[in-house]
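Session log. Operator J.P. requested a structure for one protein chain; no other inputs attached. Running the standard single-chain path with token output.
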Amino acid sequence: MPRLPDLHQQYLQACQSLSRPKNPFIACMLQEADKHDKTKWTKGITLKIAGNNHVVPVQRVTDEDLQALVAVLQNTIFVTGLDLRYNVLTDDGAKHMAKFLQENSTLRYLNLMFNDIGTSGAELIASALQRNETLLHLRMTGNKIGNKGGMYFASMLQINSVLEKLDLGDCDLGTQSLIAIATVLTPHESVKAINLNRPLLHSQVEETTVHIALMLKTNSSLVELHLRKHEMKKFGVERLCEALYENCSLRYLDLSCNKITRDDVKILADLLKRNQTLQILDLNSNRIEDIGAIYLSEALALCNRTLQALAVASNNISSKGLIALSDSMKTNMELSYIYIWGNNFDEATCMAFSELIRSGRLKPRCTDVEPYEVDGHVHLAEVSHGLRKHYYWTPSWAKDKDKHANASLALGAVSEY
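Structure written below.
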């Protein structure tokens, strides 16, 4: 087997030819990559050049650094993933990335999360992806591309038939771009997961949710949908549930941080009684209270046998609702993951979940609480488990794909690349 190119040496040569100083962080990561020849030839590698390393401070990647880096990677067939989150890339850096995406034929995963890319950069990247035929997963999370930038990505989706996972969460999308994306996804066959978290909406009539629901009625490829912080209320929940009675593909629905109340959850509970597709339901940080929890527990105990994970953390649920959920797990053997931290625990609640864990019905790593005893009384402590605990950041002692902190990946709705 011939020796693979030396990425570190090529990077130094690229910096020299561009008359720019090297970035020691990039140089170090390329040196590490050079040590794994066998991996490069078989599975390919992901270069992790994330700028949020607080344990060992690093020099974040700039637009000029990116130009030298992509010059090295342009003809490298074994680099299939590039993680550039939390750096200081701007629209100028997006020019280099767009050129790279147009010419590269091996990159499958690109993470540009929380850089400084704006509308112009979004236009360049979206335009490049119209011709790119290899990229499967793109994270633009946290780049303030705005409503106009969202429209560029909607136009891209009309042409691109390869991209499977697109994350536009926290990108300041507006009503127009959300409607455009929903409209484009209606007949789309390649996108399997999309994140539309935290748009900037200035209306209370939930027209964006209406269009997303219309898309779900006919889309047969989408399996993961994130609608966090959409100001969703009863009307929006009704429209989504009406669509999901007809949808046979969606397995992961994220409605966390909305305005869903106990009465609205009854609509979701009725859906669960008939739906045979949903596997993960995230209702964290709403206000379903005891009555809402009881609605869910009745559906899970009597009818539903497909839901595997339920998140109801921070929902103002007290003993009555939490005990009802714990009781539902005694008859429903499919529900394996449940997250309840941030609600109102009393000793009866603590005893109920302690017994579930002690009996083996609920695995300790499948929930976000852990029982402990003080002076003969059982209490619950929080543990760092959840559906997507490592969505924004990964602690130094953990792995990106820790299945206990990121249960949604373990359940396999749409795996990370």
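Operator note: The two ends are 27 Å apart (CA to CA).
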